[in-house]
TrEMBL record:
GO molecular function: ubiquitin protein ligase activity
The organism's place on the tree of life at top rank: Eukaryota
One Pfam family hit: ARM_PUB
Role, per record: Functions as an E3 ubiquitin ligase.
Protein name as annotated: U-box domain-containing protein
GO annotation terms (biological process): protein ubiquitination
Domain U-box residues, every copy: 9-83
Length: 421
């Protein structure tokens, strides 16, 4: 029998007027009508100069991202996905009481040790997840519940070892860990527990990054970020075979913005060590970051974190070289100055200072000049920027003034030879 609650009604204004599909990247024309970017771009590329919905002649063919609608679509999409997941299983129960939690944990532990009745185990764990989602107070309670975190870590290590046979269970464990780990006070101890040699927690988190749903991959990246507390833990995470490259896949521009943000946050956290920076540069991270920075659809948080990541890599010689080698990367960074947020501006100026002033790369200096960077630096110095940004701006101005004088001197010399007095 087909269940009616498996059918999800799509709000009309979430659909593109051209393709009639849910919009992935909504953009608005000057007429105020919103379309999916790929559909309206195809319409305009075909030589049309009217708005498809109103047939008004377009005064401008430029369009702007409709980020409010994009967020609404994302919220609806997540809700619809959760609805389908809940509908496919038994009807949802109310969250368990505090008295029932310990019994549920004991029940899960017993069933897991015997490796049987996986559906019953998953159902019990799902009840605890609902309890955690209900309130911050519940999450605090679980984090402080005697033996709860340790038991979850045992589940995490064991579920990953059995590959996909218990993958649904593994995703629930990772999601629950993400909910409660931030409430666990001793993150140092948490890292030690998760990275113990007799536990293969990293293998389980890697498996979720590779095969999990979007929300599970986000949770896995956030768990990794939480346990990366010191140089040792960051190195252990970065050197786990395949984990760094899999995390990089999260920040592909085509991915869900929340997934990109989680991936960037994780990478920023673990990339402080020189060995890790070298590996990231080798894996082509800078090319991906340059795409994120140049993408006008990138959110403020994604742009800030992508610039922060570039700033981190620009502190490393090979990183600075790759930034200068990547065509358009420096110009994209210049365009973000004074355009996104004060944090983004500070990251951008630090990168420009590293490649133009510290590294003295002539290609970067020329690209900054072509991108009208000098004007931006002058405007920045007139703004209410931080002392460190102001000083870096002064250093950059010195570079461009020296270059300008050099060019003028060269021009005067040539003129003198051509027209002697």
């Amino acid at each position: 029998m087909v269940r009616d609650d498996l059918y999800i009604t799509v709000p009309t204004f979430f659909k593109c007027p051209i393709s009639l599909d849910v919009m992935k990247s909504p953009v608005s024309l000057c007429t105020g009508v919103t379309y999916d970017r790929s559909s309206i771009q195809r319409w305009l590329d075909n030589g049309n100069n009217t708005c498809p919905a109103t047939m008004q002649v377009l005064q401008s063919k430029e369009f702007v991202p409709n980020r409010t609608l994009q967020r609404l679509i994302q919220i609806w999409s997540d809700s619809a996905r959760n609805h389908r997941a809940d509908s496919a299983q038994s009807p949802p129960d109310s969250p368990p009481s505090l008295d029932q939690l310990q019994d549920l944990m004991n029940d899960i532990r017993t069933k897991t040790e015997k490796s049987n009745n996986n559906s019953h185990t998953l159902d019990s764990l799902s009840k605890i997840v609902r309890f955690a989602k209900e309130s911050e107070e519940n999450r605090n309670f679980l984090a402080k519940m005697d033996g709860f975190i340790v038991t979850l870590l045992e589940f995490l290590a064991n579920a990953g070892g059995r590959e996909c046979r218990k993958f649904d269970f593994l995703e629930e464990v990772v999601g629950l860990l993400n909910l409660v780990l931030s409430k666990f006070e001793d993150h140092q101890q948490l890292s030690k527990m998760m990275l113990k040699s007799d536990r293969d927690c990293l293998a389980s988190l890697l498996l979720v990054l590779q095969q999990g749903r979007t929300d599970s991959r986000i949770a896995s990246a956030r768990v990794l970020e939480t346990i990366a507390n010191d140089a040792e833990s960051k190195l252990l995470i970065a050197e786990k075979d395949g984990l760094l490259s899999e995390t990089l896949k999260l920040i592909t521009p085509e991915n869900d913005p929340a997934l990109i943000e989680a991936g960037l946050s994780c990478l920023v956290r673990i990339s402080m060590l020189k060995r890790v920076k070298a590996e990231l540069v080798h894996l082509g991270t800078i090319k991906t970051l340059a795409k994120l920075v140049s993408d006008s659809n990138s959110s403020v948080m994604v742009t800030e974190k992508a610039l922060k990541m570039l700033e981190t890599l620009s502190s490393f010689k090979e990183g600075r070289w790759e930034i200068c080698e990547n065509g358009g990367c420096v110009a994209a960074i210049v365009q973000r100055v004074l355009k996104v947020s004060s944090a983004a501006t500070e990251h951008a100026v630090t990168i420009l200072w590293s490649v133009c002033y510290l590294f003295r790369d002539e290609r970067a200096q020329e690209e900054v000049a072509r991108a009208n960077g000098l004007t931006k630096i002058l405007l920045l110095m007139q703004s209410n920027c931080s002392p460190s940004v102001r000083q870096m701006s002064v250093d950059l101005l010195k570079i461009f003034r020296v270059n300008s004088k050099s060019c003028l001197s060269s021009y005067d010399t040539k003129t003198t030879h051509i027209m002697p007095f």
